[in-house]
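INFO batch 0412 | record 1 of 1 | parsing
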Amino acid sequence: MRKINKIIVHCTATPGDVSIETVRKWHVEERGWRDVGYHFLVRTDGTIEEGRPIEQSGAHTKGENWDSIGVAYAGGTGKNGEWLDTRTAEQKDSLVDLLCQLKDTYGGTIYGHKDFSQKACPSFDARLEYDNISNRF
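INFO prediction complete | emitting tokens
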């Protein structure tokens, strides 16, 4: 198993719900990647879908994939494409549960994609919001 130092939170940059299969299609067919870039996707109803196996490096944050887990939530933009925190209450709850499980199992610090990129993704400050999970032990 590879060493995990980071859990990086993303959004799908969509105005609504999408499935891991839809994101996989974008990544494989449109970008030419071998699989979906994220390890997990949290849907608007709070359902957590698995993407790329954790044992494999993701394709979600340039230069940071080798020691990280990529977690995305469906949404992150408004209808006009503006960056917007669109997380539902169910998504927020599921994200906390998933991040706690990942932290307890693999360790690492929680970041947002924007901590490594000029992008606004995930449309909120994940590092600040999840600081209490990152510093659990």
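INFO post-check: The two ends are 21 Å apart (CA to CA).
INFO record closed
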